[in-house]
Protein backbone atom coordinates (compact mmCIF):
# COMPACT_ATOMS: atom_id res chain seq x y z
CA UNK A 1 0.00 0.00 0.00
CA UNK A 2 1.42 3.39 -1.13
CA UNK A 3 2.19 5.98 1.51
CA UNK A 4 0.86 9.48 0.68
CA UNK A 5 3.60 11.10 2.72
CA UNK A 6 6.36 9.35 0.74
CA UNK A 7 4.66 10.24 -2.58
CA UNK A 8 4.46 13.87 -1.51
CA UNK A 9 8.15 13.92 -0.59
CA UNK A 10 9.11 12.34 -3.93
CA UNK A 11 7.04 14.90 -5.84
CA UNK A 12 8.61 17.78 -3.93
CA UNK A 13 12.08 16.33 -4.54
CA UNK A 14 11.38 16.08 -8.27
CA UNK A 15 10.27 19.71 -8.34
CA UNK A 16 13.41 20.82 -6.50
CA UNK A 17 15.64 18.85 -8.88
CA UNK A 18 13.82 20.24 -11.90
CA UNK A 19 14.24 23.81 -10.68
CA UNK A 20 17.90 23.22 -9.87
CA UNK A 21 18.45 21.82 -13.37
CA UNK A 22 16.74 24.82 -14.92
CA UNK A 23 18.90 27.21 -12.88
CA UNK A 24 22.01 25.29 -13.87
CA UNK A 25 21.03 25.31 -17.53
CA UNK A 26 20.31 29.05 -17.42
CA UNK A 27 23.67 29.74 -15.79
CA UNK A 28 25.47 27.52 -18.28
CA UNK A 29 23.82 29.22 -21.27
CA UNK A 30 24.67 32.65 -19.90
CA UNK A 31 28.29 31.86 -19.09
CA UNK A 32 28.97 30.03 -22.36
CA UNK A 33 27.10 31.53 -25.32
CA UNK A 34 29.00 29.16 -27.63
CA UNK A 35 27.26 26.10 -26.18
CA UNK A 36 24.83 26.02 -29.12
CA UNK A 37 24.93 24.84 -32.72
CA UNK A 38 25.91 27.08 -35.62
CA UNK A 39 22.36 27.64 -36.83
CA UNK A 40 21.32 28.98 -33.43
CA UNK A 41 24.41 31.22 -33.22
CA UNK A 42 24.12 32.55 -36.77
CA UNK A 43 20.48 33.48 -36.31
CA UNK A 44 21.33 35.61 -33.28
CA UNK A 45 24.92 36.72 -33.84
CA UNK A 46 25.52 36.34 -37.63
CA UNK A 47 28.60 34.20 -37.02
CA UNK A 48 29.30 30.51 -36.54
CA UNK A 49 30.88 29.12 -33.37
CA UNK A 50 34.34 29.16 -34.96
CA UNK A 51 33.77 32.71 -36.21
CA UNK A 52 32.76 33.98 -32.77
CA UNK A 53 35.72 32.20 -31.18
CA UNK A 54 38.02 33.88 -33.73
CA UNK A 55 36.60 37.33 -32.89
CA UNK A 56 37.03 36.59 -29.18
CA UNK A 57 40.71 35.79 -29.73
CA UNK A 58 41.15 39.02 -31.69
CA UNK A 59 39.48 41.22 -29.09
CA UNK A 60 40.52 39.45 -25.90
CA UNK A 61 43.56 41.73 -25.27
CA UNK A 62 41.24 44.76 -25.37
CA UNK A 63 38.06 43.60 -23.62
CA UNK A 64 39.14 41.02 -21.03
CA UNK A 65 37.97 42.03 -17.54
CA UNK A 66 40.83 42.21 -15.06
CA UNK A 67 38.67 41.68 -12.00
CA UNK A 68 38.05 39.04 -9.35
CA UNK A 69 34.30 39.55 -9.40
CA UNK A 70 32.65 36.16 -9.84
CA UNK A 71 29.90 37.62 -12.04
CA UNK A 72 32.09 39.65 -14.40
CA UNK A 73 31.25 39.16 -18.07
CA UNK A 74 33.55 36.83 -19.95
CA UNK A 75 35.05 37.70 -23.34
CA UNK A 76 32.57 35.46 -25.24
CA UNK A 77 29.67 37.02 -23.33
CA UNK A 78 30.83 40.56 -24.09
CA UNK A 79 31.39 39.78 -27.77
CA UNK A 80 28.05 38.01 -28.18
CA UNK A 81 26.16 40.85 -26.49
CA UNK A 82 27.63 43.32 -29.00
CA UNK A 83 27.08 40.98 -31.95
CA UNK A 84 23.45 40.55 -30.95
CA UNK A 85 22.97 44.31 -30.92
CA UNK A 86 24.69 44.72 -34.30
CA UNK A 87 22.70 41.86 -35.83
CA UNK A 88 19.27 42.83 -34.50
CA UNK A 89 19.39 46.60 -34.35
CA UNK A 90 16.92 46.49 -31.47
CA UNK A 91 16.86 48.49 -28.26
CA UNK A 92 19.52 47.89 -25.62
CA UNK A 93 17.04 46.72 -23.01
CA UNK A 94 15.71 44.12 -25.49
CA UNK A 95 19.23 42.76 -25.95
CA UNK A 96 19.64 42.76 -22.17
CA UNK A 97 16.44 40.76 -21.71
CA UNK A 98 17.59 38.23 -24.31
CA UNK A 99 21.04 37.89 -22.73
CA UNK A 100 19.73 38.09 -19.16
CA UNK A 101 21.79 41.14 -18.17
CA UNK A 102 21.07 44.79 -17.42
CA UNK A 103 20.74 47.55 -20.01
CA UNK A 104 23.79 49.29 -18.55
CA UNK A 105 25.91 46.16 -19.05
CA UNK A 106 24.72 45.90 -22.65
CA UNK A 107 25.67 49.53 -23.29
CA UNK A 108 29.15 49.03 -21.82
CA UNK A 109 29.71 45.79 -23.74
CA UNK A 110 28.63 47.24 -27.07
CA UNK A 111 30.86 50.29 -26.63
CA UNK A 112 33.84 48.20 -25.55
CA UNK A 113 33.51 45.92 -28.57
CA UNK A 114 33.00 48.58 -31.25
CA UNK A 115 35.94 50.62 -29.96
CA UNK A 116 38.09 47.48 -29.95
CA UNK A 117 37.04 46.60 -33.50
CA UNK A 118 37.86 50.14 -34.60
CA UNK A 119 41.46 49.52 -33.50
CA UNK A 120 41.61 46.69 -36.05
CA UNK A 121 40.46 48.93 -38.93
CA UNK A 122 43.82 49.04 -40.72
CA UNK A 123 44.29 45.28 -40.27
CA UNK A 124 41.18 44.17 -42.14
CA UNK A 125 40.37 47.20 -44.31
CA UNK A 126 43.26 47.95 -46.62
CA UNK A 127 43.34 49.40 -50.13
CA UNK A 128 43.41 48.03 -52.78
CA UNK A 129 42.94 44.78 -50.85
CA UNK A 130 44.54 41.75 -49.24
CA UNK A 131 45.30 40.11 -52.59
CA UNK A 132 47.81 41.04 -55.27
CA UNK A 133 46.63 43.93 -57.42
CA UNK A 134 46.78 41.76 -60.52
CA UNK A 135 44.40 39.26 -58.88
CA UNK A 136 42.03 42.08 -57.94
CA UNK A 137 41.93 43.37 -61.52
CA UNK A 138 41.40 39.87 -62.88
CA UNK A 139 38.44 39.31 -60.55
CA UNK A 140 36.76 42.54 -61.66
CA UNK A 141 37.47 41.75 -65.32
CA UNK A 142 35.70 38.41 -64.93
CA UNK A 143 32.41 40.17 -64.09
CA UNK A 144 31.78 42.03 -67.36
CA UNK A 145 35.11 42.38 -69.15
CA UNK A 146 35.99 45.80 -67.69
CA UNK A 147 39.81 46.01 -67.47
CA UNK A 148 42.18 47.62 -64.97
CA UNK A 149 39.62 48.04 -62.15
CA UNK A 150 40.91 48.02 -58.56
CA UNK A 151 37.73 49.03 -56.74
CA UNK A 152 34.06 50.01 -56.91
CA UNK A 153 33.26 53.30 -55.16
CA UNK A 154 29.99 54.62 -53.72
CA UNK A 155 28.37 56.14 -50.64
CA UNK A 156 25.48 54.93 -48.52
CA UNK A 157 23.45 56.68 -45.84
CA UNK A 158 22.96 55.31 -42.34
CA UNK A 159 19.97 56.78 -40.51
CA UNK A 160 20.56 58.23 -37.06
CA UNK A 161 18.40 59.88 -34.46
CA UNK A 162 18.04 63.64 -34.64
CA UNK A 163 21.24 65.04 -33.12
CA UNK A 164 21.14 67.96 -30.72
CA UNK A 165 23.15 71.12 -31.13
CA UNK A 166 23.60 73.85 -33.73
CA UNK A 167 24.72 71.44 -36.49
CA UNK A 168 21.53 69.37 -36.57
CA UNK A 169 20.61 70.59 -40.06
CA UNK A 170 23.91 69.32 -41.48
CA UNK A 171 22.75 65.74 -40.95
CA UNK A 172 19.54 66.12 -42.98
CA UNK A 173 20.02 64.45 -46.37
CA UNK A 174 18.14 64.92 -49.65
CA UNK A 175 15.31 62.72 -48.38
CA UNK A 176 14.87 64.91 -45.29
CA UNK A 177 16.22 62.14 -43.06
CA UNK A 178 18.96 62.52 -40.45
CA UNK A 179 21.90 60.37 -41.48
CA UNK A 180 25.63 60.04 -41.87
CA UNK A 181 27.01 59.61 -45.39
CA UNK A 182 29.51 56.73 -45.50
CA UNK A 183 31.92 56.21 -48.40
CA UNK A 184 33.14 52.68 -49.12
CA UNK A 185 35.16 50.89 -51.77
CA UNK A 186 34.81 47.16 -52.37
CA UNK A 187 36.62 44.55 -54.40
CA UNK A 188 34.98 41.99 -56.68
CA UNK A 189 34.22 39.73 -53.69
CA UNK A 190 32.32 42.50 -51.84
CA UNK A 191 35.13 42.88 -49.31
CA UNK A 192 35.43 46.50 -48.19
CA UNK A 193 38.87 47.94 -48.88
CA UNK A 194 38.26 51.54 -47.81
CA UNK A 195 35.74 53.29 -45.56
CA UNK A 196 35.12 56.94 -44.65
CA UNK A 197 32.52 57.24 -41.89
CA UNK A 198 32.58 60.77 -40.53
CA UNK A 199 30.45 62.96 -42.78
CA UNK A 200 26.92 64.36 -42.19
CA UNK A 201 24.13 63.26 -44.50
CA UNK A 202 23.94 66.62 -46.32
CA UNK A 203 27.48 66.30 -47.73
CA UNK A 204 27.69 65.24 -51.39
CA UNK A 205 29.46 62.01 -52.35
CA UNK A 206 31.99 63.78 -54.56
CA UNK A 207 33.04 66.11 -51.75
CA UNK A 208 33.65 63.14 -49.43
CA UNK A 209 35.85 61.53 -52.07
CA UNK A 210 37.86 64.71 -52.74
CA UNK A 211 38.48 65.20 -49.02
CA UNK A 212 39.71 61.62 -48.49
CA UNK A 213 43.37 60.67 -48.21
CA UNK A 214 42.80 58.03 -50.88
CA UNK A 215 41.93 60.77 -53.39
CA UNK A 216 45.34 62.34 -52.85
CA UNK A 217 47.07 58.98 -53.22
CA UNK A 218 45.27 58.25 -56.47
CA UNK A 219 46.04 61.73 -57.80
CA UNK A 220 49.73 61.13 -57.11
CA UNK A 221 49.58 57.89 -59.09
CA UNK A 222 50.38 55.61 -56.14
CA UNK A 223 48.04 52.89 -57.45
CA UNK A 224 47.99 51.25 -60.86
CA UNK A 225 44.35 51.01 -61.88
CA UNK A 226 41.02 52.83 -61.81
CA UNK A 227 37.97 53.05 -59.59
CA UNK A 228 34.42 52.87 -60.90
CA UNK A 229 31.86 55.38 -59.61
CA UNK A 230 28.33 56.46 -60.49
CA UNK A 231 27.20 59.76 -62.00
CA UNK A 232 27.52 61.40 -58.59
CA UNK A 233 31.28 61.67 -59.17
CA UNK A 234 33.28 63.57 -61.80
CA UNK A 235 35.04 61.49 -64.43
CA UNK A 236 38.74 61.52 -63.52
CA UNK A 237 41.80 59.67 -64.87
CA UNK A 238 41.60 57.29 -61.88
CA UNK A 239 37.80 57.34 -61.40
CA UNK A 240 35.68 56.33 -64.38
CA UNK A 241 31.97 57.14 -64.45
CA UNK A 242 29.23 56.16 -66.94
CA UNK A 243 28.20 58.24 -69.94
CA UNK A 244 25.15 60.29 -69.02
CA UNK A 245 23.99 60.32 -72.64
CA UNK A 246 25.77 57.54 -74.59
CA UNK A 247 25.90 58.23 -78.32
CA UNK A 248 27.73 55.28 -79.85
CA UNK A 249 27.38 51.53 -79.54
CA UNK A 250 30.76 51.40 -77.79
CA UNK A 251 29.54 53.87 -75.19
CA UNK A 252 26.38 51.80 -74.61
CA UNK A 253 28.47 48.64 -74.13
CA UNK A 254 30.81 50.59 -71.85
CA UNK A 255 27.88 51.69 -69.67
CA UNK A 256 26.53 48.15 -69.42
CA UNK A 257 29.90 46.70 -68.37
CA UNK A 258 30.44 49.64 -66.01
CA UNK A 259 27.09 49.12 -64.27
CA UNK A 260 27.59 45.37 -63.85
CA UNK A 261 31.10 45.77 -62.48
CA UNK A 262 30.30 48.70 -60.19
CA UNK A 263 27.31 46.76 -58.87
CA UNK A 264 29.62 44.94 -56.44
CA UNK A 265 29.64 47.92 -54.10
CA UNK A 266 25.82 47.98 -54.12
CA UNK A 267 25.87 44.28 -53.34
CA UNK A 268 28.33 44.92 -50.50
CA UNK A 269 26.02 47.58 -49.02
CA UNK A 270 23.15 45.11 -49.13
CA UNK A 271 25.22 42.41 -47.43
CA UNK A 272 26.42 44.70 -44.66
CA UNK A 273 22.99 46.11 -43.86
CA UNK A 274 21.36 42.67 -44.04
CA UNK A 275 23.98 41.13 -41.79
CA UNK A 276 23.90 44.01 -39.30
CA UNK A 277 20.36 45.33 -38.99
CA UNK A 278 21.46 48.07 -36.61
CA UNK A 279 22.71 50.04 -39.64
CA UNK A 280 19.15 50.61 -40.79
CA UNK A 281 18.66 53.09 -37.93
CA UNK A 282 21.17 53.92 -35.21
CA UNK A 283 19.64 55.60 -32.16
CA UNK A 284 22.93 57.10 -31.04
CA UNK A 285 24.90 60.33 -31.46
CA UNK A 286 26.77 60.91 -34.75
CA UNK A 287 30.26 60.12 -33.35
CA UNK A 288 29.05 56.82 -31.88
CA UNK A 289 27.18 56.04 -35.10
CA UNK A 290 30.41 56.48 -37.08
CA UNK A 291 32.27 54.13 -34.74
CA UNK A 292 29.53 51.50 -34.96
CA UNK A 293 29.53 51.70 -38.77
CA UNK A 294 33.30 51.16 -38.88
CA UNK A 295 33.07 48.21 -36.49
CA UNK A 296 30.32 46.59 -38.58
CA UNK A 297 32.44 47.00 -41.73
CA UNK A 298 35.36 45.32 -39.97
CA UNK A 299 33.06 42.46 -38.92
CA UNK A 300 31.74 42.23 -42.48
CA UNK A 301 35.27 41.78 -43.85
CA UNK A 302 36.01 39.17 -41.18
CA UNK A 303 32.85 37.31 -42.20
CA UNK A 304 33.78 37.47 -45.90
CA UNK A 305 37.39 36.40 -45.34
CA UNK A 306 36.25 33.48 -43.17
CA UNK A 307 33.44 32.60 -45.62
CA UNK A 308 30.68 32.86 -43.05
CA UNK A 309 27.13 32.20 -44.19
CA UNK A 310 25.73 35.14 -46.15
CA UNK A 311 22.34 36.65 -45.32
CA UNK A 312 19.67 37.26 -47.90
CA UNK A 313 20.72 40.49 -49.57
CA UNK A 314 18.34 43.40 -49.05
CA UNK A 315 17.96 45.89 -51.86
CA UNK A 316 19.91 49.06 -51.15
CA UNK A 317 17.75 52.15 -50.82
CA UNK A 318 18.20 54.70 -53.59
CA UNK A 319 19.33 57.88 -51.89
CA UNK A 320 18.98 59.93 -55.07
CA UNK A 321 22.53 61.25 -55.40
CA UNK A 322 22.69 64.39 -57.50
CA UNK A 323 24.66 64.06 -60.76
CA UNK A 324 27.89 65.99 -61.21
CA UNK A 325 27.88 67.97 -64.45
CA UNK A 326 31.49 69.15 -64.42
CA UNK A 327 33.92 66.56 -65.73
CA UNK A 328 37.68 66.45 -66.03
CA UNK A 329 38.93 66.71 -69.63
CA UNK A 330 41.64 64.09 -69.13
CA UNK A 331 39.14 61.82 -67.42
CA UNK A 332 36.76 62.06 -70.39
CA UNK A 333 39.56 61.23 -72.82
CA UNK A 334 40.58 58.17 -70.80
CA UNK A 335 36.95 57.04 -70.60
CA UNK A 336 36.64 57.38 -74.40
CA UNK A 337 39.80 55.32 -74.77
CA UNK A 338 38.33 52.53 -72.65
CA UNK A 339 35.06 52.59 -74.59
CA UNK A 340 36.71 52.57 -78.03
CA UNK A 341 39.46 50.03 -77.25
CA UNK A 342 37.55 47.49 -75.13
CA UNK A 343 33.84 47.86 -75.94
CA UNK A 344 33.64 48.84 -79.61
UniProtKB/TrEMBL annotation:
Residues 153-300 form the DDE Tnp4 domain. Its cofactor is a divalent metal cation. The keyword Hydrolase applies. Keywords: Cytoplasm, Hydrolase, Metal-binding, Nuclease, Nucleus. Its main location: cytoplasm. One of its GO terms (molecular function) is nuclease activity. This is Putative nuclease HARBI1. InterPro entries: HARBI1-like (IPR045249), HARBI1_animal (IPR026103), HARBI1_dom (IPR027806).
Amino acid sequence: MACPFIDEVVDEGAIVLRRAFQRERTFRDKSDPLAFNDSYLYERYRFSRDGIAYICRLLSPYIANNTRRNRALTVPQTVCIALRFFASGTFLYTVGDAENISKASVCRSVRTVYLSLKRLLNVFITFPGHKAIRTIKHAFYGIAGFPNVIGALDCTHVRIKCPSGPHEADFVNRKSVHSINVQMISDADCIITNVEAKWPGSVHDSRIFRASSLYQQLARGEFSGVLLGDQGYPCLPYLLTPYQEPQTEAQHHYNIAHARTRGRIEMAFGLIKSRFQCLKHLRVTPPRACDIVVSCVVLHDIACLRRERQPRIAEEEDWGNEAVLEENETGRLIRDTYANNYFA
